[in-house]
Backbone:
């Protein structure tokens, strides 16, 4: 009986081990697809995310990298780097414009067309890929060179994948945009899918053309999708690269540093302000900055300081705020509106910072001009009241204090006097002209 029980236990153990082995084998044989979600503007942060995602997909045995894309566009240099990374990937890259309502605008269209597989969800659109200069108004010839270079990059990507180069060139030359169905009909994308699962199922067994013209069959049946989460670094950089956040941190940090100069020894405002300014400069350094806007900001600061020190009946302050507003509005040379500074934030920050700067600097200048309130020197010009008859010396009451004073002429008790000077703590007073009611003591 005991031997039978042992035999049953051994059989169960062997069965569990075999089941576990089969399960692990099935899990190991299940295709892996890494997924990266890009739902922001195209800039150095998003370019870094794609580089790391491609590197991970190339190293962890993934069958493909799925990039879910929703972007209005972005920087030309960042887009070029991302296209280069996609074309050089050993693992096939699938760019999928999703969910419904998403778009692959401007630079995003280049990413879509450079992918091994281009797909869109219903209700999405792509195109409007005309190049916009990041350096403001340029020479016509130079701008034509940039446009031709970008269109050549797009044509090479499309031709290598067997897609419609003419339709793609129309999106770059005339900012034409396509719905998902129009893009499919024009052979700009390979398929339309409602979800990731449907997309991978439709691609299973399909043979694609790689960038080097080689053929590769996709095996994605029942693939396990592993979403690549952004790191803490990516989240922080993505937050800093927002020009509105960078502007607010720059202004707030500058005010905290000014507060530290006016109240030395507090340490916290100065340290926090310095950190905020450095982070703001770091974020703005990732964006294209117009130097003419920087000059406007410097001129605005100079005008505000002149208003605070010399006074200009508000004219200098208004001119400074106007320069500050135009400087902040044009600070970032944004190729798409989403990368620019919000007009409401620019106006609010400029007006608030200008008024606060004028007020604080004016207080500082006034404080420096005030005489030291110590000793008899501080009483010169003050009102006094004779406590007794001065013939010519006697006691007077000045700002709640009793002083010995000498008058230039005899003075009756209770007379209103004005302090005209002092000598060895002996005040010199003279009868006041007019009534005290018009000018009361401080």
Residues:
């Amino acid at each position: 009986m005991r031997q039978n029980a042992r035999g049953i236990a051994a059989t169960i153990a062997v069965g569990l081990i075999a089941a576990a082995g089969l399960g692990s084998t099935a899990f190991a044989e299940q295709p892996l697809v890494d997924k990266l979600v890009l739902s922001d503007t195209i800039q150095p942060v998003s370019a870094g995310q794609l580089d790391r995602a491609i590197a991970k997909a190339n190293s962890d045995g993934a069958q493909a990298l799925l990039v879910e894309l929703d972007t209005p566009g972005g920087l030309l240099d960042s887009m070029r780097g991302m296209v280069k990374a996609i074309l050089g990937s050993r693992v096939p890259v699938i760019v999928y414009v999703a969910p419904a309502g998403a778009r692959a605008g401007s630079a995003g269209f280049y990413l879509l067309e450079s992918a091994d597989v281009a797909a869109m969800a219903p209700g999405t659109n792509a195109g409007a890929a005309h190049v916009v200069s990041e350096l403001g108004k340029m020479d016509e010839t130079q701008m034509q060179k940039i446009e031709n270079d970008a269109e050549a990059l797009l044509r090479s990507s499309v031709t290598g994948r067997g897609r419609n180069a003419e339709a793609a060139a129309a999106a770059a030359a005339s900012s034409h945009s396509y719905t998902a169905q129009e893009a499919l009909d024009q052979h700009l994308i390979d398929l339309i899918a409602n979800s990731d699962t449907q997309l991978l199922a439709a691609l299973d067994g399909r043979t694609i053309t790689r960038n080097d013209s080689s053929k590769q069959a996709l095996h994605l049946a029942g693939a396990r999708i592993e979403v690549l989460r952004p790191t803490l670094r990516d989240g922080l950089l993505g937050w800093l690269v927002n020009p509105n956040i960078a502007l607010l941190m720059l202004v707030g940090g500058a005010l905290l540093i000014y507060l530290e100069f006016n109240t030395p020894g507090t340490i916290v405002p100065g340290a926090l302000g310095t950190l905020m300014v450095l982070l703001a400069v770091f974020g703005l350094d990732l964006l294209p900055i117009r130097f003419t806007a920087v000059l406007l900001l410097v001129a605005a600061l100079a005008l505000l300081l002149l208003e605070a020190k010399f006074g200009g009946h508000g004219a200098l302050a208004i001119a400074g705020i106007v320069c500050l507003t135009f400087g902040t509005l044009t600070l970032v040379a944004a190729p798409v509106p989403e990368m620019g500074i919000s007009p409401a934030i620019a106006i609010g920050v400029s007006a608030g910072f200008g008024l606060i700067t004028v007020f604080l600097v004016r207080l500082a200048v006034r404080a420096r001009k005030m005489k030291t309130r110590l000793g008899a020197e501080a009483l010169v010009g003050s009102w006094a009241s004779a406590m007794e008859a001065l013939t010519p010396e006697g006691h007077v009451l000045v700002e709640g204090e009793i002083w010995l004073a000498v008058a230039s002429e005899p003075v009756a008790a209770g007379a209103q006097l004005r302090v005209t000077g002092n000598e060895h703590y002996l005040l010199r007073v003279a009868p006041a002209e007019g009534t005290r009611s018009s000018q009361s003591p401080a």
